[in-house]
Design brief:
The protein has one domain. Helices cover 27% and strands 36% of the residues. Strands 1, 2, 3, 4, 5 and 6 form a six-stranded antiparallel β-sheet that branches. It is elongated and about 75 Å long.
Length: 147
Amino acid sequence: MNGQKIRVSVWLGFLLLASGCVSSGNSFIVDQDRIAQIKLNISTKVDVRRALGKPNDISRHSGSYSPLPGLPPSPALINVEVWNYTYTIVDVNAANFIVGLFAGGAPSNVNTFTVVYDEQGIVRHISSTQSEGRSGLGARQEWKPID
């Protein structure tokens, strides 16, 4: 009987230790006070870097730029620089880890924040997305927007 109690105690201890959240990226993009500091047509690269820190990636585009797929390009945005920030949170718990790894993955939230600058370094477009899904070997590749 003592051996069984020890096994149950060890198992419960493992479950407790295996629970928690894992995050990666820039958590500043979910802080509304920081996001509110960025003003369209006013803020500069310096302002954004001060509010959000270093972006995850930077890209440059020349030619007419369309900030959103499907919209016509803006003649005012010829040479732009795009800063992308991401922040991902995965809810890791023992049940998801053990069962979910093979049968459905762990729930996750992915946040992105994109800033487009004109040639003078002024913010001309801001967009953000939030989506939730599942991660892991057994996860389906479906993503749905957060309401």
